[in-house]
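Please review the protein record below. Tell me whether the encoded fold seems credible here:
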Amino acid sequence: MQEFGSVDRMADAPPYRQIADQLRRAIQRGDLEPGGRVPSEAELMEHYGVARMTVRQAVAELKAEGLVIAEHGRGVFVRSRPTVRRLASDRFARRHREAGKAAFLAESESLGTPGVDQLEVSQVVPGERVAERLKLKKTAKVVCRDRRYLIDDIPVELATTYVPLTIARGTRIASPDTGPGGVYARIEEAGHRLASFTEEVGARMPTPGERRRLSLPEGTPVITVTRVAYDVESRPVEMTDTVKSAPSYVLEYSFPAT
């Protein structure tokens, strides 16, 4: 365990934080690989010459960050999660739809096997926030699609999509399987050529339900993205709220300097 260094008793940082920092760096370097076991409490106590409580505090920090997960009776392991590099400038490109790929498939297929479960499709009168974004009357309905995305059976994202019923009616948007290219392909087939998207990105702690559905360790944050799609007439034609497991995503944006 020499790669983990030692505790500096003269440092300002308390011993548990120094240990957490060294273990974190070992995970980032790959010395502790995804799915690999973190040294036991006894091993860390012996290596660093500290009390059991100090070791537990260090490991608790890594658990709170979502870097490690405890398995009862087995030990603590480096969390194995796919990292999706989400290219905002590319994921909605028309060429993906023309190739029959929805946005999630386009960005995640190189990482493993993408999947969708917990899919619910309904027709509802949306809340005020959604109606305002889609410029709908108070009584207007939308098709609501709520689902969970997975990579290699690991949940990474929750998404709820709203499409005005006036657009979705008679299309596969109202069906569980939207067909090749997904919702956006069906919107364009309905005569609404897409022109632009806006996104608002935030971060927060998950609700209990979100934490359960995403199988998140305690203390793990989520990334929120609210997207609105506009057609060539500047009409909002779709809105999606997503909740992403923060350790599973890197959001990449590119834009001109002028």
